[in-house]
Amino acid sequence: MIFPADRYYIERAAEQLMEDMGLWRYPIKVMDVLQWMGVPLTPYSSFEKQERGEIMQASPDAFLAMRGSQSEVFYNDGICRCTRIRFSIAHEIGHIWLGHREQTPKNERSANYFAGYLLAPHPLIIAHGLWSDVATSMWLSERCAKFAHDQAKARWAEKRPFTSHERAIVGMIREIGVLPCSAVA
After folding, report:
1. pLDDT tens sequence across 65-119
2. Does 92 map to a domain?
3. Rounded CA gap, 163 and 46, in Å?
4. Could you say which of 39, 91, 133, 161 is the most buried, measured as most Cβ atoms within 10 Å of its Cβ?
5. Whether 93 contacts 80, CB under 8 Å
6. CA–CA distance from 140 to each of 24, 34, 179 (Å)?
7. Torsion angle, CA of 15/21/22/25, rounded to 10 degrees?
8. Number of domains forming the structure of the chain
9. Is residue 182 within 8 Å of 33, Cβ to Cβ?
10. What are phi and psi of 127, to 5 degrees?
């Protein structure tokens, strides 16, 4: 469970990343985000078969490694679903951007929420009427799209005005009119 204060902090952190990087094209290209952050991205396929098997047992999707102050993200490029890879990388970006230094259940939930919000901010789903097409519009797995859709519905049901960071997201997208975008590598 993510508490409202934590949600606001995570959403604001994701929006700050979008603003700092000028990320106003959706779907977001997560590999570009890592490049901008100066974080190397290494596919599992770059390892020998035995080592790759050990890595897969530790994390079948992706993981973050710290070497001193340098982060590096490793990901399973053998996953057939690009949408899963995108979420896994966005999750690791969440750990980096939120400053996580240890793996705890709360940090994992926070990184999941960050990834979902980065890939499909609920203000976009609400403002652009993407209710029935979240997976296609944002290049998400059905599972992530359902979560994003449910978050947007819950946010809509609150009937409260968009916060300043939510207005910024919607405003930038409306201003440059780039939703949806088809290339998401």
Report:
1. 988 889 999 999 988 788 889 999 999 999 999 999 999 999 999 999 999 999 9
2. yes
3. 43
4. 91
5. no
6. 17, 18, 15
7. -80
8. 1
9. no
10. -70, -30
- The CA distance from 1 to 184, in Å, is 30
Q: Which of 122, 115, 103 is nearest to 169 (CA)?
A: 122
Q: Report the predicted TM-score, pTM, of the whole model to 2 decimal places.
A: 0.87
Cis omega (within 30 of 0) for bond into 180: yes
**181 found inside a domain:** no
pLDDT recorded at residue 76: 94
pLDDT reported for residue 131: 61
pLDDT for the residue 121? 87
Q: How far is CA 125 from CA 14, 120, 132, 141, 147, in A?
A: 16, 7, 9, 15, 12
Handedness of CA 150, 34, 175, 165 (dihedral sign): positive
Is residue 44 within 8 A of residue 74, CB to CB? The reply is yes
How do residues 131-178 score in pLDDT, each as one tens digit? 667 788 788 888 888 888 888 888 788 887 887 777 877 777 666 554
Nearest-Å Rg of the Cα atoms of the chain is: 16
Query: What range defines the domain where residue 168 resides?
Result: 4-176
Q: Is residue 184 situated within a structural domain? A: no
SS3 104: coil
The secondary structure of residue 182, as a DSSP letter, is: S
